[in-house]
């Protein structure tokens, strides 16, 4: 895979050190804003990236790369991914895929029309521990309850309370607890159970954005609760309960540090199947193979998953009266 990275923020800085362990991926270009040009050029020099750009159209004229990793702020995902697909590039897009379900449908149409890969970079779907969790959840009898709690007090929340609205809490920029951290919980549950019958979101809303909230996904005989908070903190873990035992996911749903299987008698066994310490390794390993083999069957399968997640998100935000990406 010959890759161009759109963005120079926190997630890009987390990703770039991993490249040394993925020889099949060559980073050919990085795109940043004019305001962040110094930072972008520093990343270029540090990681030996061939070219740095501040203009997306100029960058997309290059034939040196075949794939774009869209890692810009949430509200720009759709526009940047659309431009990349229109230029004939495969696209790996950071979560959340888009702010609106219709935007994802448009990207899907464009990608499949051009026979290009379009996938969401959502770590938990590719982690080895997730495959173990899925298998374990099938061996604890009939599932009854799933509870995911990813609550982490945001370093930007105090500024938000004081009146400074940074992107993490800006509805125009796709901020909020649901889009930032609770979405990992949603992906985990959808990967296990698929599309729910009903969705309801009870959110704590401050200045038109959810700072925390409890999402209820009703699957009939199984009920799932996804809790995400940026205004408070608690032990971060998830529990999958069946009538013959439970599976406890230790740590956040974006890393799945390990999982513990517990019987009704209280017997416990903990597993950690990690292939690599970096949480993004497994997904990019998979993406490189998908793009190398032009595996559109896999792409369509993952898009179906992502579309369910986006439908849930859109329904939840509407239920809470939250409008992202535009003035309310």
Automatic annotation (TrEMBL):
Gene3D superfamilies: Dihydrodipicolinate Reductase, domain 2, NAD(P)-binding Rossmann-like Domain. InterPro entries: Gfo/Idh/MocA-like_OxRdtase_N (IPR000683), GFO_IDH_MocA-like_dom (IPR055170), NAD(P)-bd_dom_sf (IPR036291). Residues 137-247 form the GFO/IDH/MocA-like oxidoreductase domain. Residues 2-117 form the Gfo/Idh/MocA-like oxidoreductase N-terminal domain. Signal peptide: none annotated. It holds the Pfam family GFO_IDH_MocA_C3. This is Gfo/Idh/MocA family oxidoreductase.
């Amino acid at each position: 895979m010959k890759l161009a990275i759109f963005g120079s923020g926190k997630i890009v800085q987390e990703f770039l050190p991993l490249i040394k362990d993925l020889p099949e991926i060559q980073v050919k270009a990085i795109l940043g804003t004019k305001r962040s040009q110094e930072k972008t050029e520093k990343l270029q020099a540090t990681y030996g990236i061939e070219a740095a750009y501040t203009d997306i159209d100029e960058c997309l004229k290059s034939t040196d790369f075949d794939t774009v990793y869209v890692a810009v702020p949430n509200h720009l995902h759709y526009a940047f991914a659309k431009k990349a697909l229109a230029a004939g590039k495969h696209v790996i897009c950071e979560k959340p895929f888009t702010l609106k379900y219709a935007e994802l449908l448009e990207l899907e149409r464009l990608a499949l029309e051009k026979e290009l890969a379009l996938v969401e970079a959502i770590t938990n779907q590719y982690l080895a521990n997730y495959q173990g969790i899925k298998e374990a959840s099938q061996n604890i009898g009939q599932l009854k309850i799933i509870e995911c709690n990813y609550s982490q007090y945001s370093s930007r929340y105090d500024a938000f309370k004081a009146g400074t609205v940074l992107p993490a809490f800006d509805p125009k920029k796709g901020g909020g607890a649901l889009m930032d951290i609770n979405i990992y919980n949603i992906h985990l549950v959808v990967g296990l159970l698929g599309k729910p019958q009903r969705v309801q979101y009870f959110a704590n809303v401050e200045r038109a954005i959810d700072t925390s909230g409890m999402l209820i996904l009703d699957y009939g005989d199984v009920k799932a609760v996804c809790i995400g908070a940026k205004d408070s903190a608690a032990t971060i873990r998830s529990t999958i309960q069946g009538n013959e035992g439970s599976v406890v996911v230790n740590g956040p749903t974006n890393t799945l540090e390990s999982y513990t299987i517990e019987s009704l008698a209280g017997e416990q066994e903990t597993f950690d199947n990690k292939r690599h310490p970096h949480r993004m390794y497994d997904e990019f390993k998979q993406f490189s193979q998908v793009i190398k083999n032009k595996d559109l069957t896999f792409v369509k399968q993952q898009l179906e998953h992502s579309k369910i997640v986006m439908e849930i998100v859109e329904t939840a935000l509407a239920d809470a009266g939250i409008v992202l990406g535009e003035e309310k």
